[in-house]
Amino acid sequence: MLAMRAFNVELSRRGFASALAAGALSLALVGCGGGAAGAGSAAGSAAGSAADGAAAEPVEVDVASLKGPTSIGLVQFMDRAADGATDNEFDFAISAAADEIVPKVIQGDVDIALVPANVASVLYNKTEGAVQVIDINTLGVLNVVTGNADVTSFGDLAGHTVYMTGKGTTPEYVMNYLLERAGLTGQVTLEFKSEPTEVLSALLADSSAVGVLPEPFKTAAIAKSEGKLSAPVSLTDVWDELAGDTGSRLLTGVTVVRRAFAEEHPEAVAEFLSCHAASVKAVNAAPADWAQAVVDAGVVDNAAIAEKAIPGCMLVCQTGKDMKAALGGYLQVLADADASAVGGKLPADDFYYME
């Protein structure tokens, strides 16, 4: 199980003075040179002032991520950490599902976790604010996949049955929201399957069929179809077109930190953000160079598929105000569909790590 399972399941005070955070971040930028530009507005603003304090002692940071796109953006960072090229000691563990990670975050066994966007909100509510979101790591990875040459835009779904997974979870809420924004409510039938492989079977059995699949399943499905299928529509692009004026984005994954850890070790959080940004930049820039590392990490089992899938995995490291606007708007859409999807209510402003 890869991205879809991760996509379907969607958990102590911002503490030290900003001068200390700035000094810590400047050290982190040295540890992951080249990552400063991608680290986002939060990291960039923190680096703007000087700090006089002594460098903090290195700490061990336990990082958990999910099999699928959320881990693909980490592979260069993982390599650097394994080579001892970071100031702090980052230990990475990749899990098949969010429900394997959530208890470890709650128990304090994981310091930083890459989880589905709505799971971060659920965690915040479940722990009464004991986690914060520090970045968006993956935008939307859902795509319309079909062998029907007449389907070239989202509007062309009118009159069709669309096969997909995720009934009663975020994919369904996202699809219904986009159909409403496009004025297609009642014109498209959603038929849900339990696994992406069942969606693929339906597409291969009927050349006119239409489905929705996430990366890397989308790329694997197109390869398996031997040219019969294509992915003419990205739901992320559709969201930007139909709801871009709200400031929200279609998201898959975010990164959370235990608030107590962030307060005690702001320099480690700063280094994580810098190294994460540098890693995302490297992987996006040269998919062929990092495809085997994705396989070695156990994310996918085929380097050729990984190379082709990386551009569609929408890897980012978005922080600060842009992160808050994009994530806040996305969570609002989910909450409007089903409040339980975000843990019963939207998180408060202190959910967003803005150092």
Protein topology:
Elements: H1 3-8, H2 18-31, H3 41-46, E1 60-66, H4 69-72, H5 75-82, E2 89-95, H6 98-107, E3 112-116, H7 117-126, E4 131-139, E5 142-146, E6 161-164, H8 170-181, E7 189-192, H9 196-205, E8 210-214, H10 217-224, E9 230-234, H11 235-243, E10 251-258, H12 259-264, H13 266-285, H14 287-296, H15 303-309, E11 315-318, H16 320-337
Parallel strand pairs: 1-2, 1-3, 6-7, 6-8
Antiparallel strand pairs: 3-10, 4-10, 4-11, 5-8, 5-9
Helix pairs in contact: 2-13, 10-15, 13-14, 14-15
Model description:
By secondary structure, the protein is an alpha/beta fold. The longest helix has 20 residues, at 266-285. The strands form 2 sheets. Strands 2-1-3-10-4-11 form a 6-stranded mixed β-sheet, sandwiched between helices. Strands 7-6-8-5-9 form a 5-stranded mixed β-sheet. Helix 8 (170-181) links the parallel strand 6 (161-164) and strand 7 (189-192). It has helices spanning 3-8, 18-31, 41-46, 69-72, 75-82, 98-107, 117-126, 170-181, 196-205, 217-224, 235-243, 259-264, 266-285, 287-296, 303-309, 320-337; strands at 60-66, 89-95, 112-116, 131-139, 142-146, 161-164, 189-192, 210-214, 230-234, 251-258, 315-318. The chain starts with a helix and ends in an 18-residue tail after the last helix. The chain contains 16 helices and 11 strands. It is globular and about 60 Å long. Helix 10 (217-224) crosses helix 15 (303-309), helix 13 (266-285) packs across helix 14 (287-296) and helix 14 crosses helix 15.
